[in-house]
Amino acid sequence: MVRRAQWQAALIAVAVVVGCSSKQAMTLKADETYFAEGKKALDKKRYPEAVEKFQKLVGSYPGSPLVADAQYLLAEAYFRSADYVNAVFEYQRLVDSYPSSQWVDEAQYQIGESYYHQRRRPELDQKETNDALVQFRLFIDDNPQSPLVDQARKRIEACRSLLAQKLFLGGRLYQRQDHLDAAAALYQKLLQDFPDTPWYWGTLAELGELAFKKGNLPEARGRWEEVLRETQDEKLKLRVQQRLTEIGTPAGE
Which pLDDT band, with edges at 50, 70 and 90, does 249 fall under? Predict the structure, then answer.
């Protein structure tokens, strides 16, 4: 009886060891399988399936060596399906949870791209444009040697132009409603904050129009002459030339 009990105990111990080893092997196989299936779905543009596979890997196997890669590709699946809100969340999770990952700089850049793709028409609220601007600047500060820096700078330029356009359109609206002081305030803010955007010289011309409406011909003339000297916009040049002629200042005087 004693010997039988010893054998039974030994068999149970062996079964436990084998079971643990099998479980470890199954775990390894499972995370690799989820990763491979998720990657295949992503490559085939089956984005909901890719999201499901990568979520299972990240949620069920947090200790897997594949988890950081899966987290990045999960964010990519959302991004490629144009679900930019969830993409931001998942890219940020990678940056926060896996700061040593090889994907951190790309994730930081993609957060900016996710905001950028949510930007709205210039007359609407520009929260996402501002968020993109902040993120691209942060990316450049953190990754000055990245090959993505040039593209981030182009995005910054585009965001600034959109923010300037919003101010310009707001000023024009006030101007049409004859709220000249409110229009001037927006135009002045544009000149101060966005002097390097394509909207600068058009805004200066509109300030000339405001001065003309208020009867301040010297200021109007000065604004238009500066535009005429400096702008490369031929249509704008023709317009201010006409206005200068109308108030008795020959173009090019």
Answer: low
CA distance 187 to 126: 17
Q: Which residues of 21-59 are buried (b: 16+ CB within 10 A; e: fewer)?
A: eeeeeeeeeebeebbebbbebbeeebbebbbbbbbbbbe
pLDDT, tens digit, for every residue of 117-146?
Answer: 999 999 999 999 999 999 999 999 999 999
Contacts (Cβ under 8 Å, ≥6 apart) of 190? 164, 167, 168, 171, 197, 199, 200, 203
Task: Output the CA–CA distances (angstroms, integers) from residue 172 to 9, 135, 169, 224, in the order listed.
Answer: 88, 30, 5, 17
N-terminal to C-terminal alpha carbon distance within the chain: 120
